[in-house]
């Protein structure tokens, strides 16, 4: 146990910020990342995520407290050695025009070869292997500036992989990506953390994705103590509510998703079951109806395996039968406007 602990990246009463004269951004942070652990740092804009990441990487000095890599304080580790312990992928778009994927990824070997160092057969093998690992086989000679944001991000992850560090830290690696690419990057990073036993820490705004993939979550918000825990504990003990709820937005502890408060103007009975019923309920909530079992003059009924599966009744009299939720919602709004 003691032996393993030596490999942790951890902080000890870490206080971060920029201006010694001003208030710190966060005080007394005590967190750790283990090899093989996939950790997501979450927090609203301006919470201090990038500042923490830069402090953990040794780019910004702590205001007080320490960052430890194993038994060594990060500031005591010479830069060349540091590059063998932590690889960093920051948000800034890289100015890497005219570099091929191979050349970019090969830069990750710099700590071992020197900037102008010659790649040995093992280095070349590692570069090809990492490119394949991130799913860019066949792109080796493609110019980085002709790649999509998602592909470029994968190349950056491959570069971090060939650096062969026990820890990889990424600042918003999925920031510019569409949803499928985000999911792909998160799954890739999670898989690499397990298969390669790397401790991976990344910051993200994607709370729902972090809930689904992270082993550990760090929650950060201005003026609040940083919370660390596994996703499910943080949800159950209301930390997510506490950190992210704003006026008009509510965190649903059951589904782990955010909901917008809507002005509820009417009640409507909803009868039926299954997925169609679920989506009709969502459409009704969106337009300001609370769904109930009984008590309203209006009833929406969902039928199954019939051509017109949606029906609207007013005091048991059929008002409308239709095929789509769009028609149903229009019918509900029309009917309620005519006879509230
Ligand atoms: N170089 C700097 N000097 C002084 N203050 C800074 C500097 N960089 C950032 N800040 C301030 O520190 C605070 C935290 O910024 P930081 O970029 O760490 O937040 P963040 O959580 O990463 O935000 P976002 O999610 O918007 O990227 C902000 O108020 C910001 O203005």
UniProtKB/TrEMBL annotation:
Name the domain of life this protein comes from: Bacteria
What organism is the protein native to?
A: Saccharicrinis carchari
Its main subcellular localisation, reduced to a broad class, is membrane
List the molecular function annotations (GO) for this entry: ATP binding; ATP hydrolysis activity
Q: How does it sit in the membrane?
A: Peripheral membrane protein
Q: What is this protein called?
A: Iron complex transport system ATP-binding protein
According to its UniProt record, where is this protein located?
A: Cell membrane
Every copy of the ABC transporter domain together lies at 9-247
